[in-house]
Amino acid sequence: xxRAVLYLYFSLFLLLPGFVFGQQTRAAPAHTSVxxxxxxxxxxxxxxxxxxxxxxxxxxxxxDIVGLRRDLAGGQHPNVMVLACSDSRVAPELLFxxxxxxxxxxxxxxxxxxxxxxxxxxxxxxxxGSSLLxxxxxxxxxxxxxxxxxxxxxxxxxxxxxxxxxPAVTRAKGHVAADQLLQAAIEENVHQSAQDVIANxxxxxxxxxxxxxxxxxxxxKLDSGEVVRLSKPVSSSH
Length: 238
Ligand SMILES: [Zn+2]
Prior knowledge:
Blueprint: H1 2-15, H2 41-57, H3 65-72, E1 80-85, H4 92-95, E2 103-108, H5 115-128, E3 132-138, H6 142-149, H7 156-173, H8 181-199, H9 202-209, E4 214-220, E5 227-229
Parallel strand pairs: 1-2, 1-3, 3-4
Antiparallel strand pairs: 4-5
Helix pairs in contact: 6-7, 7-8
Residues 85, 87, 110, 138, 141-143 line the site of zinc ion (ZN).
């Protein structure tokens, strides 16, 4: 029954005149109730925080994963994009208690955004209708720690990661003591990645200016499992 309703909804949706990917009329996620109004960034964030609370307390929701998989086979409409570190302890779907079809995830060591990562975000924002990007750093990040060490990396590829994080480390050094450098650099690196995504993508910048894309910055705590939202830095250009 649920699948039949969804197929009907998607059929009607695709027949709407003036249909444009990424506009407010996009389809709701297949596993939630169908709504004509797209949720706001703050509503999406509140939902992520509710999932994070469930994760922290170990009360994860259960669902019909087989049915969900089948529902989603015809298409995806994730509302939320996440740019996160590749660290095995920082799996976005788990720590936000989300499932298939919920999150469009880009991961790299140090949650940095290169051209391929930004292109992936452009795809989700433009063609899947995703309207919120969460840039997620985490405590004890090895990539940021390597950048803080200022040691030369053994390969050009590892060096490329560290080089992209280094400006954040330099900024952090300007306002914290040495024993707080790593945590400050982790937060500065989140700010930097969020800024890089917008600064290097006219498409995303335009969507943000039109109010169709919001960026939220956050850090994940390894011990407690909590995701903490960061305030935007004063120097932020967006
Ligand atoms: Zn990391």
